[in-house]
Amino acid sequence: MTTCARPGCHNDLPEHHRGRRPVYCAPACRPSQARRGGLSVQVDHPETSPDGRATERVWTVRLRRAGRSVVIAESLGWPSAHALASALEDLLAPTPRRRPAASTKP
Description:
Layout: E1 39-44, E2 59-65, E3 68-76, H1 78-92
């Protein structure tokens, strides 16, 4: 196992089963999280499924900052969970305001 890429963080990386290997140990360690004060949107599987479905087919969406988190939605399918996470990311991302064009009238 390797360790997190964030300077000063020596945590081991979580196991991965498919896709790219993780670079950071947690969403809060990603550089993009610094813009939001460590607030991140996390989509993952719950420990157990409340309705008997396999946990690999159930998704939970959380907002997380440091060691604190709040569950926004649970028992979602993959498309719904990722659509909600994307909408939350758009809400949390700072958007630059455009200035009105300067008038050229004298």
